[in-house]
Amino acid sequence: MTAPLLEVKGVSKRFTREAGLIERSIARLTGAKAGATVHALTGIDLSVAPGEVLGIVGESGCGKSTLGRVVSGIYAPSAGEVLLGGAPVAREHAGGAEKLTTKVQMIHQDPFASLNPRMKVGETLGEGPLVHGLGTAREIRERTGALLEQVGLEAAYADRLPHQFSGGQRQRIAIARALAMEPDLLVFDEAVASLDVSIQAQVLNLFTDLRTELGLTALFISHDLSVVHHVCDRVAIMYLGRIVELAGAGELYARPLHPYSEALFASVPTLGTGRASFQAIKGEIPSPLDPPTGCAFHPRCPMAGPRCKAEVPALKDAGAGRMAACHLQDGGTGAA
Ligand code: SF4
Questions:
Q1: What are residue 319's phi and psi, to 5 degrees?
Q2: DSSP string, 136-157
Q3: Out of 51, 58, 101, 275, which could bridge 62 as a Cys pair, Cβ 3.0 to 4.6 Å?
Q4: What's the CA gap between 309 and 296, in Å, rounded?
Q5: Measured from the CA of 307, which atom of ligand 1 is nearest?
Q6: Which residues does residue 106 pair with via DSSP β-bridges, in sequence order?
Q7: What distance in Å separates the CA atoms of residue 128 and residue 140, rounded to the nearest whole number?
Q8: Residue nearest to atom 5 of ligand 1 (CA)
Q9: Average pLDDT over residues 144-152
Q10: Is the CB of 301 under 6 A from ligand 1?
């Protein structure tokens, strides 16, 4: 069996806000809790094989973008570790400061904000490789033209500024900038969410072509079920900072096992756009500041029983290479 390229092992991420003086004083008088901890990720385990594209799906606030940032080394995990090719994604310097890996590159949602408006495209594409010594200035300049052509743009566009491009073209430039760093793993964080549907399809087709050409390995974070189905081999469904189901895209879309996945797939494509974004699921998403006991989905789950409120379901083998975190998979919920 091929060794995984990416391994996420028991990763949790907490964001803690310290209480100010007034809040601490009020807390002392009232007995209320001071400060707050957001449980953004809890016990995430996953792996991605070389050449595989893993989709990460969930409602807004489920932790999928935080996971992307932890994998990229932007956020350090509060617990657990992220390994790329067997080595940690962030390395310690002698002084203790962490250096970001160049082997994981993120492509963000907003192509307008992610490019420096004052830098010519050629400079933007060459900046990272030059700083990290990936070639001489001349080699990097020559490679810039080839990269632009690889993403379907003209080499001469290197002399233009970002405002001279459309949203789709800027996202192509963002992909070229990521490829310029010769990454092992790409993380697409809602990378086509802000584009019109027709432009979105063009960028997705580009991704599919590049994947065939370069054998890319990627995490594809999205709230759009049809986009994920189009480009991913396997899909992880997240809910309130945990993975609740993980399966091959075909199997998952044909027969979701977890009640939350079922609720997501019951969503109706939005009229006129052809997109299958989430429709509202009954009940509100609980706060990650104070997650429910037991299964975090129990306040919204039609199948919930007493066991669900008391016991966190582990992500377990559900057969045929699938995994699910639900008590229904191993003996029931205790519901009458
Ligand atoms: Fe629903 Fe219980 Fe399964 Fe959670 S563990 S998804 S509450 S049935």
A1: 90, 155
A2: -HHHHHHHHHHHHHHTTS-GGG
A3: 58
A4: 8
A5: 2
A6: 187
A7: 10
A8: 326
A9: 96
A10: yes
Q: Is 303 in the pocket of ligand 1 (CB under 6 A)?
A: yes
Q: Which residues contact 245 (CB under 8 A, 6 or more apart)?
A: 236, 237, 252, 256, 257, 258, 260, 261, 322, 323, 324, 325
Cβ atoms of 315 and 246 within 8 Å: the answer is yes
User: For ligand 1, is residue 304 a contact (CB within 6 Å)?
Assistant: yes
Cβ(325) – ligand 1 distance below 6 Å: no
pLDDT digits (tens, 9 = 90+) for 225-265: 989 998 999 999 999 999 999 999 999 999 999 999 999 88
- Span 159-199, pLDDT tens digits: 999 999 999 999 999 999 999 999 999 999 998 888 888 89
CA 66 to chain centre: 7
The whole-angstrom separation of Cα 324 and Cα 322 is: 7
Q: Which residues pair with 7 in a beta bridge?
A: 47, 83
Instruction: Determine if ligand 1 sits within 6 Å of the CB of residue 41.
Output: no
CB 314 within 8 A of CB 242: no
Average pLDDT over residues 37-64: 94
Q: Looking at ligand 1, which residue's alpha carbon is closest to its atom 3? A: 326
Match 């229904």 to its residue by tokens. Answer: 328
| Mean pLDDT in residue range 283-312 | 90
- Alpha-carbon span 166 to 32, nearest angstrom: 51
Spatial CB neighbours of 31, under 8 Å, sequence gap ≥ 6: none
Q: Is 259 in the pocket of ligand 1 (CB under 6 A)?
A: yes
Task: Give the pLDDT band (50/70/90) at residue 109.
Answer: confident
